[in-house]
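hi! just following up on the protien thing from before. the input was this:
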Amino acid sequence: MYQVDDEPIETTHLYVVREGPAHPSFAPIVLSLFTLSLLIVLGVVTPYTQPVTRLALRIPAVPLAVRSFSASVAIIPTGVRTYPATSAHGILTITNGSVIAQVIPDGFTIQGVATDRAVFVPAGSADGYGKAIVPAHALMSGNTGNLPPLAVNTVIGSRAESKRVEWCGRIGE
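and the predicted 3d structure came back as:
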């Protein structure tokens, strides 16, 4: 290690003494307060507006003459027209539980519903019934011919060779 020889330390005191008058002048303080208040008043009284760049364009105008148009059409009153009722349309789902395939002819009728075309219904098997879907229509027209879904649900034939006919789908007017 280093050893430091003790040298004497000197302490120096510095005192600042103002020369001149003992009281400061109030003129610079008053002047700066006046300037500050003037800046505050100017900032409050005059609002800030962003600079606006304006551009003047000259576009030639073409005056248009005022025109009026009129059209007249004779209105022919038609009165009340009634449309005849139409028959509702939907689909029939036909299932076959027999081991013999069946052919359902065109116009086959059941519970007020007739088929629109002939349909082949395959035979039933161990996997399930034979199934066919055929378009059909109601025999009665208007609201009386509207049938809800599954309204036609009939078994035709014996249990051994049953054919089940179901009306599926809403019939419209």
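Residues 87-168 form one domain.
Residues 27-45 form the longest helix (19 residues).
cheers
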